[in-house]
Amino acid sequence: MTEAQQQYNKAVELIDVANSEDPNIELVDDQKIAKELLYGQRMSDMIAVYLPDADDVAKLAVRAQHIQRWKSPRKDYPMNRKGYHLWRTNLYKFHAETTANLLQQAGYDDVFIERVKLAVAKKSLKTNSDTQIVEDIAALVFLQFYMLDFYRKFSTEYDKEKWIDIIQRTWNKMSPQAHEFALSGKIELPETLVPLIQEALA
User: Fold this and answer.
1) What's the mean pLDDT in 16-28?
2) pLDDT at 10
C-alpha cells in the first residue's frame, strides 16, 4: 500500500469515527447505523459510480460533507429565512473546520486541506470544480435516498408549487453531467415522485 493510500485510509477512518458518534440512528437492512456515518458512506458509494476517477480531495470532501452535523442543529437558530441562512453559513464553516482538523491529523499538507475546506464549505459553486462535485453527489444522494422521506415529512405542509420549486432548486445546483447521470437510470429515483420530478424539470 502506498503512503498516499495509507494517508487517505487514515482520513476516512477519522471521519467515520467522528460521524459514528451521531446519536441519531437509522435502520438499514435491520442493522442500526449512525445517521451521518451512513450518509458519508452513501456519498462515497455515489462518487465511486458517478466519478470513479475522482481524486482524493473530492472523495474526502464528499465523505466529510455532513461531518458531525448534529452538533449544529437548525433549532438553535430563529425559524425564519434569516435564521435559516445564518444556520447554513455557520454549518458549512463548522463542517470545513472540523474536516480540516481531521485531515491535519491524517498528515495532509495545507494546500490539500484548503482545497477540501473550500469544497466542504460550498465555496465558489459553479467555478470551483471540487465544490461542484460535492454539490452533485449531495443532490444525487438526496434524490435516491432522502427525497421520499423528505416528501412524506412535509407532504401536508407544502403544496405542489413548493415541491416543484424544491426540485428545481436542487436541479439548478447540479452540473449538466449530474443531470445526465440522474436521468440515465444509474440511480434509483423514488417511483412515486417520478411524475413530480418530470413535471418540475419540464
Assistant:
1) 96
2) 97
